[in-house]
Automatic annotation (TrEMBL):
UniProt keywords, alphabetically: Acetoin biosynthesis, Decarboxylase, Lyase
Pathway(s) served: Polyol metabolism; (R,R)-butane-2,3-diol biosynthesis; (R,R)-butane-2,3-diol from pyruvate: step 2/3
Gene3D superfamilies for this protein: Hypothetical protein, similar to alpha- acetolactate decarboxylase, domain 2
Protein name: Alpha-acetolactate decarboxylase
Residue span of region Disordered: 245-269
Entry annotated with the keyword Lyase: yes
Amino acid sequence: MSRSETAFERFDRWARTMLAHRSASGGAGHDDARAREVYQTSTMGALLDGVYDGDVTVAELLSHGDFGLGTFNRLDGEMVVLDGVCHHVRADGSAERAAPTDLTPFAAVTRFSPSVTLPAPSGAGRKETFALIDRAIPSANLVYGVRITGEFASVRTRTVARQTPPYPPLTEATRGQAETDFTEVTGTLAGFRTPDYEQGVSVAGYHLHFLDDTHTRGGHALDFRLARGEIAISTSSELHLSLPTSGPFLDSDLSPADSRAQIREAEGG
């Protein structure tokens, strides 16, 4: 027969149990908060003003999220983050896995956790798909990660080319870019739907990048038409904005009067 616990042993067991429970709850709460957060480095306003060099590495970026988009230092192509892997899309539309030491001047990531999934309507284009998502979300005032996966009848993309100092403004850097047309391609559109009040900090509205299912081609999505697939939406209520503390960012004009028009021109919206 086992001996009876002393009062001290009973208290010690109770205390250990309570501490373990609190630790587990705290960890879960912390994970939930991270799942609701979008981590962004720098702002779209800085990118508009030609601030193309940052000090955040891909490794650091991926510690904050497994899904998102952005660009690379010197505006060297487009970034697509899917399932915890960062992909680098070059100016010719080719894609490869980014190095952990690659740097970004602007990127946004989140821990993608779908709160809504919808079948992608066959034949739906960009406008119809965005209208469907707008009807499915609970509010236009939150940030949503948007992942559209499946077969596309067509996807039209463009990819910005690497710049050299002195850097031109983004609207100049994106003029005359070569576009790529994909037809009957399987892949993923990944990005965000951001509220209008974040214009200049982020890209208000929809901002999506494309990566094919071989992870070898992609770009900034200008237009698309679906054949079949799935739309997944991840809701975020927190924004972690990490700003540079040195370099050209400190003297940049972050809120030009025509920022909305500049972003529309640069993003092809």
